[in-house]
């Protein structure tokens, strides 16, 4: 493999890092910081304001990750087709990416619905006893989403590490030889 893909790999990895790290920091710090406000009716507004400031940066990070990933996939399409295990890793990574995108989008929808709400809450995603039931329900959904996003993007990062291991010359040779051998055994 003589072709270098430094720019697109950087886009892919830095975008994923920001998506993962920003989501985790938000779940811990934005929501936690809002819980420290003395007025329970200001906590939800503070949390949604913090997340709203992060949203454009997150969108750029996700876009960079997706563009970089598409370019890497294009550059490695021969390996995906010809090396045993690479297609399965690629499909798993695409599934996790799709799930992370869906949960991120749903989290954004919930956040928009909670913007401007001044109900008493314990924190950005933690309802209080006096929180109206519909707001409490959205907060619980948002809490699940905001912890699921770092879990999913962390899984993408693990699969990215696996992809790097699969690109080692010894792994490529074994994977390329093993795939046709497996097909021949299936036919005979």
UniProtKB/TrEMBL annotation:
The lineage of its organism: Bacteria, Bacillati, Actinomycetota, Actinomycetes, Pseudonocardiales. This is Uncharacterized protein. It comes from the Bacteria.
């Amino acid at each position: 493999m003589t072709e270098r893909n430094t720019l697109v790999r950087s886009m892919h990895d830095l975008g994923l890092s920001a998506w993962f790290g920003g989501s985790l920091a938000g779940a811990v710090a934005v929501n936690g910081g809002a819980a420290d406000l003395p007025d329970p009716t200001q906590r939800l507004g503070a949390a949604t304001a913090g997340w709203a400031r992060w949203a454009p940066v997150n969108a750029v990070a996700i876009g960079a990750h997706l563009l970089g990933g598409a370019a890497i996939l294009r550059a490695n399409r021969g390996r995906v087709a010809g090396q045993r295990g690479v297609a399965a890793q690629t499909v798993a990574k695409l599934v996790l990416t799709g799930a992370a995108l869906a949960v991120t989008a749903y989290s954004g929808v919930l956040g928009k619905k909670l913007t401007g709400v001044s109900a008493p809450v314990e924190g950005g995603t933690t309802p209080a006893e006096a929180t109206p039931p519909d707001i409490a329900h959205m907060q619980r959904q948002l809490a699940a989403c905001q912890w699921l996003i770092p879990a999913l993007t962390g899984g993408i990062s693990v699969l990215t590490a696996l992809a790097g291991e699969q690109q080692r010359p010894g792994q490529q040779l074994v994977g390329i030889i093993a795939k046709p051998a497996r097909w021949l055994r299936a036919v005979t």
